[in-house]
């Protein structure tokens, strides 16, 4: 198996708080990996380390064969990243936003023209090229932001809660695009709080208080936990961990 992401005991501390604790995971190339966990469990911190935006405290991580400790600049150029607050320029048009990011990624005129046309079509934005981004609905904005993150043909797409606050129809369209991209060989690491989305991922990892509690395919996890669905898996894992931490607390052990 070729990994697009592999990390070994990756750890991030903020003062005496451990945001990510000894995380070891592999994301196979071309797969969709759903990274799940309650608020504040360490997902965004992990993503920031993998994108080369935040230096790990310890451990190691490789992204597309590049070392997160020493090759963060190369990593940033090879991946596509979309955060919870898609960073669009609201007062620019759809096309101007794409032009701006094409400039950031240093695409030449021919590449820019070709990629813009491909991505406008992929995102279903045809006919909206001259529309001001700020006037688009949430779903369109989200697909425009995704297009901006794909301009430079990244091999790995990292999406941090891309569908938060977006209506169900737009979520469905967005995920259809994600699956299409994975079909083209692009690896996707995505965080989400929606279990219907997680269910369609190839792999799932559950993180809580910085610890990876479980990892596997959605079906494996449901079977392993004797659960009805992924939501039950999620809730059972959180309850088990809270009980374990409560016991550890009583014995005076730290997290
Ligand atoms: N720059 C920082 N300084 C101090 N603590 C931080 C910093 N960034 C994150 N944390 C803490 O690290 C922990 C993990 O936060 P993180 O944002 O990674 O969680 P998350 O799983 O992405 O949450 P959410 O689902 O709400 O986005 C939290 O306790 C958070 O308060």
Automatic annotation (TrEMBL):
One example GO MF annotation:
ATP binding
Q: InterPro entries, per this entry?
A: AAA+_ATPase, ABC_transporter-like_ATP-bd, ABC_transporter-like_CS, P-loop_NTPase
Top-rank taxon, per record: Bacteria
- Keywords in alphabetical order: ATP-binding, Nucleotide-binding
Instruction: Provide the ABC transporter domain boundaries.
Output: 5-234
Which CDD domains did the record assign? Answer: ABC_DR_subfamily_A
- Keyword Transferase: yes or no? no
- One Pfam family in the UniProt entry: ABC_tran
**Which PANTHER family is this protein grouped with?**
ABC TRANSPORTER G FAMILY MEMBER 20 ISOFORM X1, ATP-BINDING CASSETTE, SUB-FAMILY H, MEMBER 1
- Name this polypeptide is given: ABC transporter ATP-binding protein
| Species classification | Bacteria, Bacillati, Bacillota, Bacilli, Bacillales
